[in-house]
Write a structure and sequence with these properties.
Blueprint lengths: L8 H16 L17 H15 L16 H15 L5
């Protein structure tokens, strides 16, 4: 099993939180509403989509592009975990 396949929910959450915190120059709790707090604009939301796809080898399409999936670090972590679980081939 590769390091990419063995990544944990905690590791994903830390990676996303680190990316967001670095971009907004502030520590971001995992359950903070990024849109309500004004930390995330629609342009930054698109950057988040690209970052999640590249960092965690997932594709975010269609219904998964809704704002609620990007509202908090925790929500993005759940999205990545769900997409990784759905996309893993049986023989990987």
């Amino acid at each position: 099993m590769s390091a990419d396949q063995a990544i944990t929910a905690e590791g994903i959450e830390q990676g996303i939180a680190g990316f967001v915190s670095g971009r907004v120059n502030a520590e971001v709790p995992a359950d903070q509403d990024l849109f309500a707090s004004g930390l995330v604009s629609s342009m930054f939301a698109m950057e988040l989509v690209v970052h999640l796809e590249q960092a965690f080898s997932v594709q975010i399409l269609g219904d998964d592009l809704k704002r609620d999936n990007f509202r908090t670090v925790r929500a993005m972590t759940a999205l990545v975990l769900r997409l990784r679980d759905a996309g893993q081939p049986a023989d990987a």
